[in-house]
Structures are given as structure tokens and as C-alpha cells.
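Researcher: Go.
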Amino acid sequence: MKKRQLEFDWVDAFSVRPFGGNGCVVVHDASEVSIQDRLALVKETSLSECAFLVNSNIADFGVRYYLAEAEIPMAGHPTIATVTSLLSRGLVATTNGSSKFTLEVGSGVLPIEIETTEKGFLIRMTQMAPKFGKIFKKEDISKLYDLEPADILIDPQIVSTGTPFCIVLLKDKDTLRKAKINSHYFNEYFKENQKEEKDLMEPFLTTLGGVTRNGDTFSRLLMCQSGNQEDPFTGSATGCMAAYLWHHGLINSATFVAEQGHWLGRPGSAQVDVLGLKNNITGINVAGYGYVLMSGSLSL
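Model: Structure:
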């Protein structure tokens, strides 16, 4: 059987340096790559997700994102990785260091803006207007992490800007650090709640205040479904978290810096801007940098 040669880039997203943020392999001209091979590649790389550029009839570029088990409709760090890859290969035209175009993902079309700064290309995606879903009692979520209900500041809630996450605001960094998955309760959580939210991801744990002087929030995503212990940076959940904090009046400014991954030795950050009023959010801008760590070709 004749092998196909497909070009790829391995990109560290939400980082300006190697081995920071969250890694993602971006495969070009992948419309004909089977779902089975897409899933197998994620497993092969041991990354949380990989991106596959495909044809699009409704946007300038099309891409699909996959976990090791299934497609994910929208994901933040693969979006930053995909655009970084396109830029590095000269596939996106820039004028005076800027560009605007559209990217079709599984959940719809994302507007993308490029701005050149002293750090490189700042990539800004506009995530969709949030959908606010089920509200949970503190005691129902705290037991997932062997925490106490008092460790959670307000009732958690499912929010989606393309992919749904349950946003959980913890009282401090010490609580965030000691959180660990209780597998029994986690399995029950997904069994019950994926009846309502089929693309539901693990809860996103966040705190107010960064771990550096530049940050305004710091978060963790402990992963049970995919086999990875923790996600270094989760751009889609960051958009959901921003909408949750702004909507519930938990932050004073709609513009802030979100941090994640520092405790893993993979520091990542995003510039976040919630668009619209607290009771009428029209979208979420999540912006970050990417670093091409390696490039090559796949033989499939």
C-alpha cells in the first residue's frame, strides 16, 4: 500500500518558548486521513490533542481537533497551534504584521486576528457567545476532588463557548494545589451529566490571582477521561471561565491575563477579553503565542 506523506508541525501553544504551554501536533492536508488514524496519532504522540487541517466551504481554513478517544468540537490550544503552524509556513498573508481570517472548527467558525508584537505573532481567537447551563451544588463537585464544599466560593456551572466545561472557583491556591481526582465520583459525574451535555469535559478549577505578577487568574484541568493527569493550558476552558467570572460579577475587569501550567513546569498564559455586558456576553477573545518546536512529515 502506498504511503502518504503529510507535513506536520509540533507547536507549544500559549507559550513564547520551547516546552511551555500546551503541545499540539498540527497535520496539514489531512482531509483524507481517517478518523481511526487521527485518534491513533493522538495516542502515538501522548499529547492531549492533535489538529488536522481539512477543506472548508465556509471559512478560509478548516481544522478538526481530536482527543485520543473522540473529536472535540472546539479547543483553544490547538487553535493557537494551528494558526502558528499556518503562519510559520507562510500560508497566512499579513499586512504590516497583521491579518484577519476565519477558521472552521467542529463547533463553527472562529474569527482569527494576528498582531505582531515584540514577542512574535499574537494570535487572537473570538470564541462564541457563552451558553450557561446546569448549576451544581458545591458538595456535588467538591467530592470529585476530595475537597470540602466550603473550598468552593460559589456554585459551579456548566458554560460553553464551543465545548462545555463545569467552571469551579476555588477559594485559594492551596486548595487548588491539593485537589485530586476521586475516580469513583468522576465516573458517576460523567455518566449522569453527559446525558445532557454530550461533549462535556472535566471541570475546570480556577482561582482569582495569578501565580506571577502578570496573572489575574490561575487554573488547573485534571483529566480523567483521556488518561492524562493534567492539561498544561486549556484555551477553550479559559474562555468559559472568563464568561463565568464576568457574568457572576467575580472580576472587576473584562480584560485580564489567565495563567495555567506553571506547577507542571510548562507555564502558559492568555490575554482574555470578555465582549459585552455581564448579562449579554457576545463573545470571548482569547489570545496567545505559539512556538514551533519541531516540523516534519508523517508516513501514513
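Model: The mean pLDDT is 94.
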